[in-house]
Write a structure and sequence with these properties.
- The protein is an alpha/beta fold and 227 residues long.
- Helices cover 30% and strands 26% of the residues.
- It is built from six helices and nine strands, in the order βββαβαβαββββααα.
- The strands form two sheets. It has a five-stranded mixed sheet, sandwiched between helices.
- Helix 3 packs across helix 6.
- The longest helix is centred in the middle third of the chain and has 18 residues.
- The chain is globular and about 50 Å long.
- It starts with a strand and ends in a 32-residue tail after the last helix.
- The relative contact order is 0.19.
Length: 227
């Protein structure tokens, strides 16, 4: 895949959209990199962010799309994955997926300086996490669980640190200073994808657990079936 205009997007935490120019004989160029701040406005913010990025870059469309597969909360993650599929179909371009934590780890590896845990808030007093080496290469995960499930002795980095600050402190778990509020960047997701050899697999949602949504009791099937 040479001379490619890549749209990268992620909704595992906040909305993040990036455009990159990728070629085989030069370093990738990050054309734009937009990062939201709200973890509850994925449906409202994603498509306008994509539209604005393309307009600013003067692109009619990208040549390929990369989307973060999570893990992340069900609703936000579904917005990103569904939007990537719809845009790919409309533009007639391929869409690929990568674990969102791989992008986070790629960004935080220099600060970690060794093997570490990249983590995002999973709510329910839990973390989405993966284990990475000093370069950001995945060693294990992704998983979801309480702070007590983390490998002992490894520092934790990423937005999950702020969310589970009290639990991490109580457990004596080290953290990577300065990374406590860092969400997934779509630009670093793309860089992680390139470093992994540009795997061309279709996106697969990494929800890791069931949705928090519960159907109202009035919609539950009765013992006698539908009447």
């Amino acid at each position: 895949m040479a001379g490619v205009r890549l749209l990268s997007l992620d909704t595992s935490s906040v909305v993040s959209v990036a455009l990159l120019e990728v070629s085989d004989d030069a370093e990738p160029v990050i054309v734009s990199d937009a990062l939201g701040t709200d973890t509850h406005r994925h449906a409202e913010d994603l498509v306008p962010a994509v539209r604005d990025a393309l307009a600013a870059a003067g692109w009619e469309r990208p040549d390929a799309i990369l989307v973060g597969e999570g893990p992340g909360p069900f609703t936000g993650l579904r917005v990103g994955l569904a939007s990537a599929d719809v845009l790919a179909f409309a533009w007639g371009v391929p869409v690929f997926g990568l674990c969102s934590l791989d992008g986070l780890a790629r960004q935080l590896a220099p600060a970690a300086g060794g093997e570490f845990i990249a983590a995002l808030d999973a709510r329910r007093k839990e973390l989405y996490w993966g284990r990475y080496d000093a370069t950001g290469r995945p060693l294990g995960g992704p998983q979801v669980g309480a702070v007590s499930t983390l490998p002992a002795g490894l520092p934790v980095a990423g937005a999950g640190v702020r969310a589970r600050e009290a639990e991490l402190s109580a457990a004596g778990t080290p953290v990577v200073a300065g990374t406590e509020d860092t969400p997934v960047s779509a630009a670093h997701l793309a860089l992680a994808w390139l470093a992994a050899g540009r795997p061309e697999h279709a996106p697969v949602a990494r929800y890791l657990r069931e949705s928090d949504a519960v159907a109202p009791a009035s919609l539950a099937p009765s013992a006698g079936g539908v009447k």
